[in-house]
Amino acid sequence: MTTLGGVIYSQSWDSPETNELREEVRRCFSFVWGQADSGWCYVGEGVKLGDADKPVCWWRAEGSTTVYRMIYGDLSIRDVDAADLPTCTPTTATSQPNQ
User: Fold this and answer.
1) Total domains in the fold of the chain
2) 0.70 cut: is pTM over it?
3) Is residue 91 part of a domain?
4) Second label for 14, Cα 20 to 30 Å away, from 29, 79, 84, 89?
5) Looking at the domain assignment, is residue 95 inside a domain?
6) How confident is the model at residue 91, as a pLDDT?
7) Confidence of residue 76 (pLDDT cuts 50, 70, 90)
8) What is the DSSP string of the chain?
9) How far apart are CA 33 and CA 17, in angstroms?
10) Domain that holds residue 79
């Protein structure tokens, strides 16, 4: 099974590709975690890299009460209506990182 973490850890820590990927992931999570009360939820444990239909995480879009941004296993980001969100059952992270 190929997961995002598996891809990162399978590379040399000194390779330019790994450094670039690690920085992109860091920026993404810094952005999400920096939003208080963002409705953040992580459900990506076991999601394979490339799984276009499996959510990894989501958060409420800035300025909205009903639209969420969802990242999928293929690393695409799509807007999802709050009524269409799956149940937030975190697997390895808390639903609110600041807790």
Assistant:
1) 1
2) no
3) no
4) 29
5) no
6) 54
7) very high
8) ---HHHHHHHS-TTSHHHHHHHHHHHHHHHHHHTSTT---EE--TTPPTT-TTSEEEEEEPTT-SSEEEEEETTS-EEEEEGGGPPP---SSS-SSTT-
9) 24
10) 4-84
